[in-house]
Fold these 2 entries.
Entry 1:
Amino acid sequence: MKTFHIRSSEDAVTEKALARLTKVPANSVLMVVRSGILARTLPVAINTIPVTINQDLRAFVPEQGMDPKFLAWQLIADEREILNGCAKDGTTVASIEGPALSAYPLKVAPAGEQERIVEKLEELLSDLDAGVAELKAAQRKLAQYRQSLLKAAVDGTLTADWRAAHGAPQETGAELLQRILTERRARWEQTQLARFAEQGKRPPKGWQAKYKEPAAPSSSNHLSIPEMWAWTGIEQLAGGTPHALKAGPFGSALKKQFYTSTGYKVYGQEQVIRGDAHFGDYFIPEEKFRELIACAIQPGDLLISLVGTTGRILVLPEDALPGIINPRLLKISLSPGNVRPEYVQIVLESPYARQFFKLNAHGGTMDVLNLGILKELAVPLPGLLEQEEIVRKIYAEFELVEQQESAISRALKHSAAQRKNLLRAAFTGQLVPQDPNDEPASGLLARIRTERGQTARSRGISGSNRAPAICSSKPDRRRRKAKESA
C-alpha cells in the first residue's frame, strides 16, 4: 500500500486457500483500515490484478459506471475527514470503523465527467509530483554536500588553499598538542598544591609522579591528514579539571520526581537534537544540583547524545543557563583557549566519526555510545589558527546550505498545499467543465439501483429502498458461506 497502483505483493496464496477467502477483482479500491499509519495518513490504492486481502484492509468494488480512480482520488482528497469521522474508539491500534466508513458520503459525477476529472487531475498531479521529486533530489544533494564539507574539514582538504597561502604555521598540531598536555599537567599541579596548602600540609615527596597522563586513543584510523596536523584523542583535548569528561548521572540519582518548575536546568537529548540549548523546561532545586555538581555544565561545553540518536552534538552558548546533564548525555569541557569547541563538533559530526560510532556503538534495540568508546576516537588536530579557519568556512557554507534548504522546504509546503487545492477542485466541480450531453449522476444512480435490484431478485433476495451504494464492500466470508449453505 505504498504505491497508488498495486501490481504485486510479497505474499501469495494457493487456489486451495483462495477457496476459503474472498477474491477482489482487478480495478477495485483498497484502503488501509487498521494500522498505526492511520495516525498520519490514509493509504488508498487500486489493484491492477485480482487479489485477496487481510483484516487490515478494506476493498471496494465499484459498480458499473463508477470509475475506480475517481473513487480512490476522492477518498484521498477526503483523507482527514475520513480519519476524523470514521475512527474507531477504544482500540490499541488506529482503526477505521466499518459501518461508519460504509456510510461515508461520496460525491458522484456523471460517468463521462468522472473520466475527464481523473484524466486532468492525474495530468496536473504528475507535473506536481515531478517537481516534488526534483525538490527532494535537491534536498538529498544538499545533505550529501554537507557531508562532503565535513569530510573535507577533517582531512585538511577544505583549508588546503589557506595553508598554501599562509606557509608554515606558527604552531603545528603536534606543538599545540604538546602545549595542551603541558598546560594540563601544570593545572593539575596547581590544584594539588592548593589542596595541600588548604590542608596545611607540605607536598609529600614524589607527589608529582602521581599525575596520570591522558591516554591517547588506541584505535586505528583510515584518514590521511596534512603533515602539519597531529592525531590526538578526546581525553587529551579535555581541560584536565575534575569531571571535564562526564556522563550524566546513573540510576535513581536523577528521576523526574526531582524536577521543579524553576532552579537549575536539566539538559537532555531534546536540546541536542534540536540544536537549541534554551529549549525545554526541566529544572532541579539547588540542593539536588549541589549533589550532582559533577554533571554540571558551563558555556563552551560540548554535549553529546549517547542513546538512540547517537553522536549528535551541541556546543553550549555563552548564555546557557546553569544546570546539569541527564543520563542520555555526555559533556566535554575542552582545554581552555587551545581548542575551538566548534571544531571538535565538526569532527564529531563528520562522516569519519559517524562511521566510527556506527561500528562501535552497541546496544539491544538501539545504538548506545559511552565515554569509553568516545575516548577511542582518534581526532585530527590542526593548529589553532587553522581550526578557526575551518570553523569559519564550514559556518559560511552551512549558512548558504540552510538558505537553500529553507527555500526547498517552503517549495515543498507550497506543493503540498497545491496538491490539496487540486484535489479539492476536482471534487467540487471546478477542475473540468461539465458537459450537458453527459448522463446525469441521478440517471447513473438510478441505473445502479435497477441493476442491483435485478441481481437481488435473481438471487431470491428481497429488495431495499435504501439509496444504492456506488460500490460493494468486501463481503464477509462467514456471511457468504452462510448464504451458500442456505
Entry 2:
Amino acid sequence: MDLQQRINAFVKLGDFLSQFSSESFEKKDHIAHNDLFFDGFKHQIKLAKEHNGWFNKENVVFALNGWSNQLTNSNINKWLSKYEFNTESLKTIAIVMAGNIPLVGFHDVLSVLISGHNVLIKQSTNDQRLLPILLEYLISVEPIFVERISYVENRMTGHEAVIATGSNNTSRYFDYYFKDVPNIIRKNRQSVAILNGNETPEQLQLLSDDIFRYYGMGCRNVSKIFVPESYNFNNFFENIYKWKEVINDNKYANNYDYNKAVYLMSGAKMLDNNYILVKEDDGFNSPIGVLFYETYTSLQTLETKLNSEKEELQCIVTNNSDNGHIPFGNTQQPKLWDYADGVDTVNFLLKLH
C-alpha cells in the first residue's frame, strides 16, 4: 500500500466523521459503508459517555469535528509535504494511550499508519469506545489496514518502538520499561495564557474556551493565567460567563466543591464566581474547577521564566503570535503538524525505516 492509498483512506475517514461534527448528527448519502457504520458509531458515542462521565456529547462532538476538519486531502498533504517517504520497511510501533479527553491518542495512530508502519495499541480504560470503530471504518475503506492494526490489554511484546503518554509518575516506569527500544515518552504538561489587561471581550471569550473545554482536563487547556500587577478580574469574569453552565455537571461540580472546601479550610485566598475558583499560585497544574494565576511586572522577564520552564508547558496563549504563541481560542484546535511536546512524531517514525 503506497502513501497515496493511505492518505485516501484517512480522507474517507474524515468524510465519515463530518456526519458527527454537530450535535444533530446528519447521515450523508455519499459516505462509503455508511449503512454499516453510521448507527453503530452513534451508539458508541452514547456508550463513551456511559463509560466515562467526562465524555459528554458536546465534548465528543467537538473532538470529532476537529478530526473531520483536519482529515482532508489538502491538510494531510500539507502536513506530509516536508517528509521523504522513500521506503516501506515495516516495523511494529506500540502506542500507550492517555484517556483524559476523547481520542487523545488518535494522532499517534494516524502518524504510525500514515508512515507505513504497523500499530500495536494499548488503550486507556477511560477511552475505549471511539477508536476501535473508527479504525474498523478505516479497514473497511482500505482492507490492507487489517494487517497493520492490533490491540493489547496487558503486557506488550513484539514492538520495535514505542510512543507512550502518561503522568510524570508513569513516565518513569515507561523510561525503564521501554529503555531498549526507540521511544517517545510524554509526561504531564500544562498550558498557560499571558494577559496584558487590554484584551477585547471577544479574546477573553475565546480564552474561556481554552480554559473550560473538556472540563480543563487536556494538556492544551489553559490551567494558569499570568496577569499584570493590580489586574482587575471583573472584565475577565464577565467574559467567561458563557461557560457558567459547566457547574451543572455533577462530576465537575464535585471537584469544584471539594477544592473550594480545601482552600477555605486552609485559609487560601481565591476569587470565586460560583463555577470556577481563581487562585494565586506559582504552580502550573491547577485542579479541575480551579484556575491558577500569577502576576508579573515585566513581559520580558516573564518570557524568560516561561522559556526556562518550557519542558512543563504545552501551549502559551497570548494575543501576540510573534513568539510562536497560540492565539486565544485555538488550544484545542491543533493542526496535524502541531506535535505534542514539540516532538515531530512522523520524523521519529520515518527514521526507523
